[in-house]
Amino acid sequence: MSIVSIRGLKKSFGEHEVLKGIDLDIEPGQLICFIGRSGCGKSTLLRTLNGLEVLDEGEIEIAGHSLSRKSKTDPLDDKFEKKAQALRKHCGMVFQDFRLFPHMSLLENVVLAQTVGQKIPRDEAIAKSEALLGKVGLQAHKDKMPLQLSGGQSQRGAIARALALSPAVMLYDEPTSALDPELVDEVLSVMKALDQEGMTQLAVTHEMRFARDASDYVVYMEEGSIVEIGAPDVLFSSPKDDRTRQFLRKFL
User: What CA–CA distance (Å, rounded) separates 74 from 89?
Assistant: First the structure.
């Protein structure tokens, strides 16, 4: 059974159609990497799944919670917003730029997401936050301020913060693009460990090595559409579509 189901998903900005009817099913525990040229719709797809962008048309279902519109003229009323909020609660989102609060320690950043967003008692939130920081290798840095952390440490802290809300699905929008090359593996190793634990993860990435070595399936997108989906060993060695082949040629 799919934990993420997408049907006929469309999204435009003005006259520019960014998503042109996406259909996709993702099973629990899969790590899916989305690749493609800049502007092909990868990031918009993730932001639409999380409700940061409002879909124009189609249906999204995540962990049993659905959100749909028949057309972009459908009203964005309170009923729609409640469904969007329910969907959003099941998605953890990690961005390129960390977005940690600079005036709070790393631990407090992770605690805040629980005490404010989920009204969890502070003692319980602290215990959970310390365990999560241990999971991503940051227990020793819990009292540091974000400016005292490296980029890799900050991004691992952002992953811990997202995990603190117990999401059904983790979404990553280019989580390593702002990092120095030597720090990239710090973040990717955490994602690999979460994959081994059975966390469902969707990642927009330009890290072809990670997509090839760690993902269950790779989705190649171009001009707002899915061109090809395949297991990484197949897609990277013998892509079926010439557009995929042209894109991968510069990496392989």
Answer: 23
In angstroms, rounded to a whole number, what is the distance separating the alpha carbons of residues 169 and 62? Answer: 8
The per-residue pLDDT for range 45-99, each reduced to its tens digit, is 999 999 899 999 999 999 999 999 999 999 899 999 999 988 988 999 999 887 8
Q: Which of 203, 225, 180 is nearest to 39 (CA)?
A: 225
Domain boundaries, the chain: 1-90+169-252, 100-166
Which residues on neighbouring strands pair with residue 201, listed in sequence order?
31, 170
Please provide the size of the chain in residues: 252
Three-state DSSP class for residue 104: coil
Task: Say if residue 240 is exposed, middle or buried (CB neighbours under 10 Å; 0-12, 13-18, 19+).
Answer: exposed
H/E segment holding residue 43: helix 42-49
| DSSP codes, 74-92 | S---HHHHHHHHHHHTTEE
CATH number of 1-90+169-252: 3.40.50.300
| Rounded Cα gap, residues 65 and 5, in angstroms | 10
Residue 57 CA, chain-centre distance (Å), reads 21
- Supply the pTM of this predicted model: 0.94
